Structures are given as structure tokens and as C-alpha cells.
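pls design
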């Protein structure tokens, strides 16, 4: 059996965080589920076109060091027995419109 580490953080974990951030293409903000508290879940700024949702996250200093040395990022999804299709990328996943390129 696999045991997950608790997600609560103490004061020694400052900087050991990856947090959602606002970005230019965002067009809505998701609120927390009613089953969770503000401490467990905050607002998530996303871009949504009806087919895909994209959010942007920024790592704290300690997390950057951890990623640099391990090359790993872990994804956890509160979704019960399964996991919806997801992706992680380091490059911004938006293409500029041709009209924007001529401005």
C-alpha cells in the first residue's frame, strides 16, 4: 500500500510551494469546492475555451532547487478513483494570433 504525505505545511516549508498565478490569457477564475475549506483550496485562475482549461503556476525558491536537481514535478488531482487527462509544460501553451504579430 502506498501512503501519501499530508499536504499540511509547517513554517519550515516556506518557499516549498508551487502556487497558481494570474496570466494574460486567463478568462475565468474557479472557486474552491464547497466540500473544501479556504485553507485546503484557493481560487484558480484559468483560460477555458470549452474544450480545455489551462492554469499557470509559479514555484517557490526551494521547489526550483528541488526541480533542478531531480528533474521531477509531481501532479496530484483531487478526483476520487481516477485522474482526468492532464498535461504539464514549461513553455507557454498559447500561440499568438497573426493579427497580434503585426501590431
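designed seq:
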Amino acid at each position: 500500500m502506498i501512503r501519501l504525505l499530508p499536504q499540511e505545511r509547517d513554517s519550515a516549508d516556506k518557499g516549498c510551494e508551487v502556487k497558481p498565478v494570474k496570466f494574460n490569457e486567463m478568462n475565468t477564475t474557479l472557486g474552491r469546492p464547497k466540500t473544501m475549506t479556504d485553507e485546503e483550496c484557493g481560487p484558480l485562475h484559468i483560460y477555458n475555451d470549452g474544450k480545455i482549461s489551462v492554469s499557470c503556476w509559479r514555484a517557490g525558491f526551494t521547489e526550483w532547487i528541488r526541480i533542478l536537481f531531480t528533474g521531477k514535478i509531481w501532479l496530484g488531482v483531487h478526483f476520487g478513483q481516477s485522474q482526468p487527462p492532464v498535461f504539464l509544460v514549461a513553455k507557454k501553451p498559447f500561440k499568438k494570433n497573426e493579427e497580434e504579430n503585426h501590431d
